[in-house]
């Protein structure tokens, strides 16, 4: 393993580990694209996500917004919603971040993203949101 991969793997571990959803996605593609996982760890986490300037929670909110705008990113959105929670982003902040994408990404993508967020929050027994959490 090179230094970029080690740095990226360490960053992934900080945010909840390389397993789970990320591991399943890359594992399903290992027989056809074995380097894809390495590229993601080295570039996305080793080079970009490890940069200074934003804390992990803010960085995850930016990523969530980008994934919502792209659409059709359910596995990645699930992973990054989980990472956001692991980085200290509150459930209410996640809901608000998804809502902030509405004027830019549109109702279909925000409704899809909110459905994914609901699933992630439910899996962690964080629903229903109370008024104090959602504020």
Automatic annotation (TrEMBL):
Entries under Pfam families matching the protein: CMD (PF02627)
Protein name (Swiss-Prot/TrEMBL): Carboxymuconolactone decarboxylase family protein
Organism: Nocardia terrae
Stored PANTHER family: 4-CARBOXYMUCONOLACTONE DECARBOXYLASE FAMILY PROTEIN, CARBOXYMUCONOLACTONE DECARBOXYLASE-LIKE DOMAIN-CONTAINING PROTEIN
Ranges of residues in domain Carboxymuconolactone decarboxylase-like: 34-118
Gene Ontology molecular function: any one: peroxiredoxin activity
